[in-house]
Write a structure and sequence with these properties.
The protein has 368 residues and is of the alpha/beta class. It has 2 domains: 197 residues, Rossmann fold, CATH 3.40.50.2000; 152 residues, Glycogen Phosphorylase B (Rossmann fold, 3-Layer(aba) Sandwich), CATH 3.40.50. The strands form 2 sheets. It has a 7-stranded parallel beta sheet, with helices on both faces. It has a 6-stranded parallel beta sheet with strand order 10-9-8-11-12-13, with helices on both faces. Helix 5 packs across helix 8. It is globular, with a radius of gyration of 21 Å. 38% of the residues are buried. About 2% of the residues have low confidence.
């Protein structure tokens, strides 16, 4: 009997992104059960994260960045690459006949797929954090372009989202068959942080929505009244985050070696997730797994991960409240211990074996 073929489509793999890590880890888990391939809509480049040797990697074509309306030439170039990608994508479907195609996208408005209403033979499933309601102001042309893609080219069913808040958003906007499946952490750690060093840790790429600048400003206030503490960032694009006076702020380049990442968690005493927006907050779960108390922005829709009693919340975007919560938690060991105890139980729900069964059930339901 032919093994069920599951394809995962992603824009690019050569960056240190949360979605790239989720896809490579998920595919490795699913390869135990299905025939798994990854199709990348970009030129051939090395993947930042290691790909399981059982997984076939294929390239669809050049990656068209979203058309932002600046110049006819750019728009025509975008359309040329877009239609070339659609053509190549359709040919790959005909040639390899996947049963299920998971389209992993951080946005839902510039996906070049979503043509399941026109073609048969494979079922597309959109895996997205659905940022539609959180977009910043855009030009009129860009808004029209995104609206066209949303209305005519997006699959309006068979959607997987990483938290229940997003599920509610999409269902209120009229989307059907929305399934909540959380992302899972990529490791377990029997060795927990001893919290002996005065180190605050943040992990991820430096992007505006990650709130790293907010954390830097709050930390500068903190060390004025609580000397001896250090702030460490582990991630990409960290250049320019600090200046010459920040002797107690340390920047570390990203690493794909899981053991190296675990060492950073185990060496810290406190973890902070200052993001303005997150779909899952995997790094927060990893910190919990390593026995760290967590301070997290109060983000709408992230209640599944930032469960009450497991993290200390601060008002989203408030530098003053972040400073107040940092000062509170570093001076209250009992609060730290309470958060750690609650989080240790909570994080088990995000272990791979407890999440992969949900993907199995979804795939088997689709191909039944």
């Amino acid at each position: 009997m032919r093994q069920t073929k599951v394809v995962h489509v992603i824009q690019t793999l050569n960056v240190q992104g949360g979605m790239q890590r989720v896809v490579t880890n998920l595919c490795a888990m699913l390869a135990d059960r299905f025939d798994v391939e990854i199709w990348v809509f970009s030129k051939e480049q090395a993947s930042f994260f290691d790909i399981d040797k059982r997984i076939k990697l294929r390239h669809i074509g050049d990656n068209p960045d979203i058309f932002d309306g600046r110049g006819l030439q750019k728009g025509l170039y975008f359309l040329k690459k877009l239609f070339k990608g659609i053509f190549n994508y359709r040919n790959l479907i005909k040639q390899h006949r996947p049963d299920v195609i998971f389209i992993h996208r951080g946005e839902i408005d510039d996906v070049f797929m979503g043509f399941q209403r026109f073609f048969s033979g494979s079922t597309e499933v959109l895996h997205t954090p659905y940022k539609m309601k959180r977009q910043q102001a855009l030009s009129t042309i860009t808004t029209i372009q995104r609206s066209v893609f949303f209305r005519f080219f997006q699959p309006k069913k068979n959607v997987v989202v990483p938290n229940n808040g997003i599920k509610k958003d999409m269902e209120s906007d009229g989307w059907k068959a929305v399934t909540y499946i959380p992302n899972f952490i990529s490791f377990k750690s029997n060795i927990k942080s001893k919290r002996e060093k005065k180190i605050i840790l943040a992990v991820g790429r430096n992007a505006p929505e990650k709130g790293f600048r907010l954390l830097v400003n709050a930390f500068r206030k903190l060390v004025k009244t609580n000397p001896g503490w250090e702030l460490h960032f582990l991630g990409s694009n960290l250049t320019g985050l600090t200046d010459k006076t920040d002797n107690n702020i340390h920047l570390h380049p990203p690493t794909k070696n899981v053991d190296d990442v675990i060492v950073y968690y185990q060496s810290a005493s406190l973890f902070v997730l200052p993001s303005y927006y997150e779909s899952t907050g995997l790094v927060m779960l990893e910190a919990m797994e390593c026995g760290l108390p967590v301070v997290c922005a109060k983000i709408d829709g992230l209640e599944d991960v930032a469960k009450k009693g497991c993290v200390l919340l601060f008002e989203n975007g408030s530098e003053d409240d972040l400073f107040a919560k940092l000062e509170l938690i570093i001076n209250q060991p009992d609060l730290q211990n309470k958060l750690i105890t609650n989080a240790a139980q909570h994080v088990q729900g995000f272990y791979p074996e407890n999440v992969i069964t949900k993907w199995d059930a979804l795939i088997n339901e689709i191909v039944a």
